Amino acid sequence: MITIFDIRQLTFGVLIGTGLAGLAGCKEAVETAAPPPLEVQVQKVEQKDVPIYYEWVGTTDGLVNAKIRAQVTGYLRKQHFREGASVKKGDLLFEIDPRKFQASLDQAAGELKRARAQRAKTELDVERNEPLAREGAISQKELQDSIQMNLAARATVESAMAQLEQAKLNLEWTKVVAPIDGVVGIAKAQIGDLVNSNDELTSMSRLDPIRVYFPVSEQQYLKFATKVQDRYREEGDPTKVREDGLIEMVLSNGERYPHKGWFFLADRQVDTKTGTIRVAALFPNPGNILRPGLYAKVRTPLELHRGALLVPQRAVSELQGRYQVAVVTPDSKVEFRTVITGERVGSQWIVTQGLQAGEQVITEGLQKLEAGASVRPIPFGTEQSVTQAISLPRRS
User: Fold this and answer.
1) What is d(CA 224, CA 263) in angstroms, rounded to the nearest whole number?
2) Residue-number span of the structural domain to which 290 is assigned
3) Checking DSSP bridges between strand 64-69 and strand 248-251, what pairing results, if any?
4) Residue among 49, 50, 48, 53 at smallest CA distance from 223
């Protein structure tokens, strides 16, 4: 006889069994659900001719630099230029008090007149004594003495003329003029200062065109040595602005200088301590905007790499000196390749071995990938779908 208690027990067992069967079914569904392929951003390996640029860091300098020094001692009287302004060759820069030098000039002129008068007297003595000596009226010794006095007087005249010329120069040097066209720096002497001979008064530079000095390795120099030597064989003014400039310059503020330069000279020897040679390029500098001492990064194409294979630098990873990229195979699998890289070109890298043109390399999410994993490639720059996640299905 089945009691109510037995029916309740049976019903509870059926419910428990049904629940366990449902959970088993859910577990099986979870275990059999496969995650979707991971989306990855890719770029194709590009093939084209690429100019190889070489870059160097240098500093600007004047084409011609001149230190303006006093050539006489005296008190500085006037300054005729504005500091930092452009002046022409021959423009008056400073005046030193000329009165002392004018007095010396007048004195030298008087000494020259006296010496010429003495020379004239000795010449008359010689003219008078020569016939008297032939007639025996005077001795030969008296004649020779008069001749020697005349020679000494002539030498005195020449010495007085030299002193007069020196006095003229000293008076001229009280006016300090610009030796070149260029920009004048800050004055190092003030009005009223006593300046000595060879004291520096200021400095100036010719700035258009302007030089840029930069150190180049021996290997790099040999690649463009012919171009530098061609400059020495050219006729005409080597500083004249050229239209075929190939050298670009980037200033310290990151801006690219609008004018291109050209190779100008190379130093006479390689520095054995650094293995570099000092090279100079010239750049047009209209308006004298650039000044000596500025930081400058210069670059120029020295060779053309034909048919180069290019990949983004972000697609290349390095491990213990070896480089590799992740490639998406035709069946959408991940394959890691070891590659040999060449020069960097902007944000890309030349690959010389390990890739073929048109292959797809992964640019994002390299750390999450495993070899052989299935992926869904999308072009680089395309927004990926919502983050993929594996979720449990709803309970039955």
Assistant:
1) 9
2) 54-63+206-303
3) unpaired
4) 53
Q: Tally the domains of the chain.
A: 4
User: What are the tens digits of pLDDT across the range 41-77?
Assistant: 888 888 888 888 888 999 999 999 999 999 999 999 9
Q: Which residues contact 308 (CB under 8 A, 6 or more apart)?
A: 47, 48, 49, 50, 342, 345, 350
Cα torsion angle, 237, 240, 243, 244, sign: positive
Q: Are residues 146 and 183 in the same domain?
A: no
For 352-356, the CB contacts below 8 A with 24+ separation are: 352/309, 354/325, 355/45, 355/309, 355/311, 355/325, 355/327, 356/45, 356/309
pLDDT in tens, 245-281: 788 999 988 899 999 998 888 898 999 899 999 999 9
Domain membership flag for residue 387: no
* 263 and 236 in a common domain: yes
Closest CA to 311 of 42, 38, 52: 42
Distance CA 88, CA 82 (A): 13
In terms of domains, do 294 and 353 share one?
no
Give the pair of three-digit tokens for residue 276.
């570099």
